[in-house]
Structure prediction request, 416 residues.
Amino acid sequence: MKSEIISIGTEILLGQITDTNSSYLASQLPLLGIDLYWVSQVGDNKGRMVEVIGRAWGRSDLIITTGGLGPTEDDVTREAIAEVVGEDIKVDPTLLKELEDFFRRMGYREMPPRNIKQAHLIPSAQPIPNPRGTAPGWWVEKDGKIVLAMPGPPGEMERMWQKEIIPRLKERMAGTVIASKTLKTFGISEAKVDEMVSPLLSSSNPTIGIYAKPDGIQLRLTAKAETQEKAEAMLAPLEQGVRAILGSAVWGVDEDTLEAIIGTLLVEKGLTLATMESCTGGLLATTITDVPGSSRYFRGGLVSYSNEMKVAWGVDAALIEQHGAVSPQVAEAMALAVRSRLGADIGIGITGVAGPDELEGKRAGTVHIAVLQGKDGKDKRVLNPLYPPRRPDVKRRATVAAIIMLRQLLLGLPIP
Prediction:
């Protein structure tokens, strides 16, 4: 089945909101064995919407639209679909009563007249329930084509997709089962990963997709077969081949998170952790404590943004004077100091220049990270990366790198 996604809304074109619906749906369609060929964005203009939907009607089997189902004058997705399929819109009495009942339950004496348009249907459309909002979706079938119109708010759209649409699409795709597994890596560039696994990329089934993510490069392995067992059997040798090539750079699969993995390792080994951060501003401590039960191993974190605070928490002022605050020596001193002050087994120190300006003559994006274990810090990992000078990215990438370094130390592995 050849599919297409159309995101509707002038606010998308103006950059006022990010089109997360398309990326969400794009990740969902392969799991159903549906091929996605095109993604489009169009504003709230009926003429242009008719043009875009009409083009999709001529080339795709499944057309998915999000947005434009509200009650306002510029919400014209229904009208555009009706024009493309050549049918007249009429008020559906059952839908109208459901909407009126919804407003009464919400405490309104009567439904605003503008909401009546949300009870519109065409003969080839069936309403798709939307318990999270007032805009029911449309399931349109005509001439061997399917058009799915869903609301724009992600919470409403995702619930409708999961509960109402996926079960029906699975019935249509009977006989095709998709098995998928994502391998997560760190320390190897996207191009290098592609080069390393290139001998495995020629297969059309199973397949490998390579994606750059904030926590490293991910490889999605996907197989199609008649049964789940056959699909998983096809994936197994492919996964073994990828792991043999990438080795310890693979840190997790599917829904694994770095912070949860290091939490499990710390608990298993009976070790505690403390952090001192400068350029990351507490993001490392925040990320670590996103894991339920992290109080079992995380003693605490210090944000020593100024040199005075670094010194106050145990970093030698002479060391800062000699090497500068942004240096591997100070990162190590921070890790040792916080390990000692908070009585932890392991200390992490991060210092750097988040940007956009230079500091101490060092370029924005310069970061030094130290992970130390033991009283004198003999068991350690030190990394001195240079990231693109975008402040939020520097903070996030340094945080991810620190957690990866901690994982490598706990497993006795070198930094990838």
About this structure: The mean pLDDT is 93. Residues 391-411 form the longest helix (21 residues). The chain has three domains: 2-172, 177-253, 258-411. The chain has 14 helices and 17 strands.
